[in-house]
Prior knowledge:
Blueprint: H1 2-25, H2 29-50, H3 60-79, H4 86-104, H5 107-111, H6 113-136, H7 157-176, H8 179-196, H9 200-220, H10 222-245, H11 251-254, H12 260-273, H13 285-289, H14 302-310, H15 312-331, H16 336-347, H17 360-372, H18 382-394
Helix pairs in contact: 1-2, 1-4, 2-4, 3-4, 3-15, 4-17, 6-7, 6-8, 7-8, 7-9, 7-16, 7-18, 9-10, 9-16, 14-15, 15-16, 16-17
Amino acid sequence: MLEDCNKARRYFTFAVLLFAVFSACSPRLKWLTHAYFVFIALPGLLWFFKGRENISPRLNEEWVLILFLGWIAVQNSFLAAVDDLRYIRYAFYVIVFVIVVARFTSPDVFRSETFARKGFCVLLAFSLFSFAVDYSNGVWYFGGRIRFLQPGTSPYFHAYLLNLLFSLLLARQILSGRWVEFLCMLGVLLFIDAFCFASRSALLGVTIILFGNLIFMIRHHPKNAIRYASILAFLAVLTIVLFRESTLFHALIERGDSQRFEIWYEHLKNFWQYNGLHFGLGQTYTRSLLPSDNGLMRPHNLFLSILVYHGVWALLLFLMLCMLILRRAWRNHDPWGCALLAGLGEAAFMSENIVGYPNAIWFTILLPMALILNINSPSEPLLQKEASRKSGQQT
């Protein structure tokens, strides 16, 4: 039985990695859905029936997740047509993905520096290649975004993935004093986010990662925090000077707020007008109340989407789930907690729904959540163990 568990862990670890790679290069969202069913969902269901003891929830966070998904499934099915059970199916897709990652994958692979570094370099090379192709063809412009071979999950998905991998490396760089590597990686990342993808939400994610690690270092490694804070202060001053003296950065602001505030106001107005406080307005409300020829069809905010579509109770359950998982990551010194925090910040400007077919939210929010809850994680905090090992080598 133990040998079977090890084989299953190796397979599902490889399957999740393959699924992540496929999401970064698949031009269509439908292909990603097929990959999920073939490599993760169907093998996961077969393994569930073979080892049903791994399915039952063991953590408080898992119970909150089940309540959250159950509420959405029942509430949407109640508000939709009588024979429309798609939302139960969508919730089932999400819970299978989370359970597979939390139960049957090896956390050492996803927390290894090799995984983060190689993944970052591959995505960086792919993004720069796409930028070079668009620039040579004359389709790229300041303030625009590259489009060559971009994935179907989101036009900003590569920027979000780069932020995620950067967050896994940053704490290690600070603890080991690799400041030159940190500055080079940060500079390239800012160039990709600002000029190649023109993604202000991705830049917000980088800011959350930088200051999230600063708070962590102040709490757990104050000596490292002093140098890190000095570098951040210098970078902040340099950014202000460059922004004042150079017009290259102004294109990010000249686009305005992309009508975000008007979109949010319109959705909130409908939310109150049609009494969606407790049960929400359902997923079909946008097709029945809003015209299809404008940008108001989607809330462009994950938290607002949960509130408007599913009601205040669903939003409270989701916020509770996020706080519990972030608290677990903080206690375990888990770098995936910072990745999750950045993903939640970026999700405030994303339009994908968390319950549905695979999309960018699955990798920026659900994947970090599942890895933080992984039952195979070591009992000793990861970054604390690495800090102890490095201090031992120095002495």
